């Protein structure tokens, strides 16, 4: 009998992790963007790659788009293309960090014209959402300042709130606004939404369909991220995750690669707080595959989330609670760690096979010939990256 | 003519910084508490020392008490003692970190008896406030956990909210509850109020007289503290400062000693946000003088705050705003730094003398003979420290 | 057949982890030292507790002593006591952080008298080593400064070198000097041996029997510790480990508790660099059990090291090297993580049983009645802590 | 009479800070490289801009080149161009981070061909040095790995040593090799030269003309950089500084902008250790002016170094040493801070004027019309950046 109970299997079966279209394009650092053969040239090819991840894992039913990187003439056609490949179009991500006008700010800019332009970009993103059927508008703001004294941080907060309100009011139906926060980069002194508190304080003034996005790589060193997960779930404001991992700054490495135990703790709090398979809490990746193969990198990532979810579900909750209530520190820790150290991989492989999926998705992809095919076919054109 | 305008002088004249009674007692690290001659043996002697700081600086009109360290039979007598020496009794600080019952929590403890005991301690602190005429009850919670899995962080938040509500409801008149946050220590995995967001989310549910206390040493490495100052002022929830400085963790060094420019930036945001000489925003020190002389350490500290306030007030605001609006990064920075680099010390010395205060408070204290007097008189008894 | 090959079993069989006598005494933070029933009152009782850890794990053949905390009239008697219980006396740790004379330094002090006193203390420690048969003198220096400008860091380095040389020259036979480094605490601005580079530069001038001690909790946030392990092994200067774990500062938590994957990576480099079961590289714990049970805390700790060593030994090295040579990032990572995620616990339990040890040492200890016995017997007297 | 004594003036007169040619080109983050009007198109224009910084400050007598970004057909012509404008060509910086071959390493690469190619690039840089008359070859290595297990860190150290030796042996006369270290970026798990200890251990094996380069932005959070300055000077291995400042990672902001007091402390240790105006210790900038004006950014930077050097020279050393020897913590700190808080700017302005330099270099540049001229003239072509 599997170590994965029917209940656990049921919960795992409900799990879906959204892939970022940009993970299939080239990325890098300020020093260099390395290229790889077979990289997509347009959004249609990105979605084809994403669908391949879903095909071998059953874990990635939707793809997030980034506007304007993924702008196409006919979003309806893109949507049908995705559906034909078995995936949906997901969250729409806006971009206010690459237009010369936004050098000193976008939604916070002092100049009404530029701020309005930035707001209008978001309204355009909502138009895209209407066409793609996407629910979420995700806003990550690159704005801030590099030097103390450069700008008036306080006035920017007020302008930000005003801009967000205008955008929020344009949403219809079950559409949501999800506001990401980030500690630093590309701004080096202050960012306008640096921490969960700021994102929370901003979205709390907007309404029920404004939520916080937690990117696991966007915190100061040593921050207890699972505490924030717990708190946002408690406050009813955790809208989505951007999963990745990091050793230093916003490294955007494969989720679970840098600190697997941290991912475990995060998922424990997600489960504890009712965030698993809760439609209000979207799971997404936001990663860069600078030097590793991109499609396998995404496969590895969703598997990491799945495996760690399984481990977190394995916790013997009654035993844990008993030990916690008894203040039995080592006893509680033992229950907790027992789940983490359990090797769920064989059981997951078996379970995948039972559902008609490859037991080893990495091997299945390698054996599929897809990589060779795209390397052969995608010759010429401009490889997609952060500029297109 | 002084570089300090009449307006600046007026603002400086209104400044008062509360001293912590415990700064006059011995303190140290887990490795060693060093002793010094002349250390007070009781609250009356601590207040006498604090009054000496005020005598030579005119900057320290009140003294915060810590319960039970400063518990006396007759708080009315202590209040008269303080008033006779020209100072007031200020904020009352509770202590839930030294009783065996609190090993695993106090206001968050799962055991109703212990949680009630911790709440009752705070009610007793409010009784003390009634007797001393203090306005603020400051709560810093040492509770948390050392190991992942040890405890249920989510349930603790809910219990914390319940405990705080009971305490808050006992307040009368203009009394306030001020909730401090701290990143880590003495708990090493999670603390129950780790960041400003948690403190804000908690006090926001209580009412208008529940505020956040910002201790400048309680943040993750690299945190932009002045941004938090700005945000809390914007949200109307900055109740008080615990000033100190740090290089690494909660070092509790003299304010302004580790990063003077950070203190400048904090005070700039205080002024920008209307927090200077605003009765809603209390200025306090929370420091340890582990190896340096205590009374001079406190004198140096309040002078550091005063000098940096003067520098922050010197900013040519119209010029700064013009440069900011023009996105003239270097121009704005130049205006900002010009104030920081201006040597305000001679003008402050002159201004102090004009108000009947020593121009050089450190020298005045050294010449006063007070230190020699207390070293001679305070022989025998037990020196005050963190345990008494 | 066990997943642990005969070769792996052989390597595991050779593993020994030295326990710190002080882990059995009370410890805490500057805020509070909690007490526990059954805590030893003297070095004999500490050694009895340490022997109990060894009895149930077979992993802890020696006990490090701390002078003066473990000073006894007759070290020969203490040695026989240990041997009777099946353990040896190990590393001698000096202490220059609790005498009033050392408030501003010991081996670096400007005052010749105090510096000489600190050197003499180390010579006395070597006398103890002669009596106990210990090989290593471990020096951790608490000295440094709290404020910029307080002291002349450069002159202190030179005096430190001079002091260390005098101590080193007193060593005989195979005795060694091992110099620990620490980033901060109890000093808050500078420490005299803050990083591996300084420790290395100092011991390199002394001779072959002067080595570096790497305490896993003594680094700046984000430091790649396994890189240092690799480098010190490469330079032939890794003398010993102080194992523990941390989330923030020098938390001294149970090894492997905060970041199990980091412990794995460290042990991988130990094996790669020839440091496993290499007599030149001592494995020790240096932990505090502030709130958890002490003897089980030590049992858990040595088991964590053993389990993680087993995982590290499981790496398919030829496959790893092949993937590395092919720059197959994900392939190499897969081999690496496969070992980490393998559950070695059942095989280790079986292997322990095959060697006449309890398969579950934690359960064996709990069932032994030892804890109840010491709680009943150790009544009265003063519990051991960091002062005694 | 000036607060700057004749001796201080003499020391200031000897100060020269090398400018990086690349500071005049465009730079940015992975998110965006903003452009500015008037940006140079080739090395000749970069040097013209650098010479302008020297013209108004008298502080920037040389310009560092980056190969291949500054590769020209005739380095003799470039040298004459520089000399005609009153500046010299300085340090030659190699680049092994932008060629596809170097994706997985250069001087450490396992593939002999690639490693040899990287070595050859450095030999070519030495050829350039011969042509430009440069003394220093500065090596910053971007290499490392992004994932644990990806590579064999130990073998890379050995290959690095081998590569460096080959390069070192090609140096002639007074030419030097200076090895920079960096904590992270662009590699996100390990870098091959992460810390001063590694750089020191590597260059120590090469010979007297191999030194360490300390970039002030390349350390883990909280690192005491001035301690490293002290230690490298003590060991005779501090070859050069790359000055800049940072709040978070390698932000490459204007030196002194993020933490002026840290720059002060660094310069105090430079002076203490005999590093000021010591030809063995080169002062350079390594900065990015992502959003601020570039030439004024460089002027501001060299002025910051000059002003802070003046402050550091103002320390009353006998008084400081007396207070230090007496362990008068607050007294020593007072002497130290007195120098920091002294406003040296008026005296420096006067002194500059006395030497025929503009008293206000920023204003002089603004008034010179140079910026308008280059914006008008430099139309068309490709603006220089990190790629050219």
TrEMBL record, chains A, B, C, D:
Keywords: Isomerase, Manganese, Metal-binding. One of its GO terms (biological process) is L-lyxose metabolic process. The keyword Manganese applies. SUPFAM superfamilies: Xylose isomerase-like. One of its GO terms (molecular function) is metal ion binding. This is Rhamnose isomerase. It comes from Microbacterium aurantiacum.
């Amino acid at each position: 009998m599997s170590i994965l109970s029917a209940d656990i299997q049921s919960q795992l079966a409900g799990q879906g992790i959204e892939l970022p279209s940009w993970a299939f394009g080239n990325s890098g650092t300020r020093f260099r963007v390395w290229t790889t053969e077979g990289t997509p040239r347009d959004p249609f090819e990105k979605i084809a790659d994403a669908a391949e991840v879903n095909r071998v894992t059953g874990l990635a039913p939707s793809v997030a788009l980034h506007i304007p990187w993924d702008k196409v003439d006919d979003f309806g056609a893109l949507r049908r293309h995705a559906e034909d490949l078995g995936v949906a179009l997901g969250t729409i991500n806006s971009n206010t960090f690459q237009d010369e006008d936004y050098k000193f700010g976008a939604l916070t800019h002092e100049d009404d014209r530029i701020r309005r332009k930035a707001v209008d970009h978001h309204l355009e993103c909502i138009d895209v959402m209407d066409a793609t059927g996407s629910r979420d508008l995700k806003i990550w703001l690159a704005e801030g300042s590099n030097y103390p004294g450069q700008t008036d941080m306080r006035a920017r907060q007020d302008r930000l709130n005003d801009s967000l309100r205008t955008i929020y009011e344009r949403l219809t139906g079950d559409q949501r606004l999800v506001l990401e926060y980030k500690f630093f980069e590309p701004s080096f002194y202050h960012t306008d939404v640096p921490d969960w508190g700021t994102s929370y304080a901003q979205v709390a003034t907007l309404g029920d369909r404004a939520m916080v996005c937690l990117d696991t790589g966007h915190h100061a060193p040593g921050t207890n991220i699972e505490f924030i997960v717990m708190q946002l779930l408690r406050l009813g404001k955790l809208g989505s995750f951007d999963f990745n991992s990091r050793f230093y700054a916003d490294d955007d490495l494969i989720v679970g690669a840098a600190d697997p135990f941290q991912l475990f703790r995060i998922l424990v709090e997600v489960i504890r707080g009712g965030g698993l398979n809760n439609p209000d809490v979207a799971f997404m990746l936001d990663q860069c595959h600078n030097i590793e193969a991109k499609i396998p990198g995404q496969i590895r990532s969703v598997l990491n989330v799945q495996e760690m979810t399984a481990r977190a579900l394995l916790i013997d909750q009654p035993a844990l609670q008993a030990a916690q209530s008894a203040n039995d520190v080592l006893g509680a820790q033992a229950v907790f760690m027992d789940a983490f150290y359990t090797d769920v991989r064989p059981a997951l492989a078996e379970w995948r096979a039972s559902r008609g999926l490859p037991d080893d998705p990495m091997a299945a992809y390698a054996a599929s010939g897809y990589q060779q095919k795209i390397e052969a076919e995608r010759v010429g054109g401009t490889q997609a990256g952060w500029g297109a």
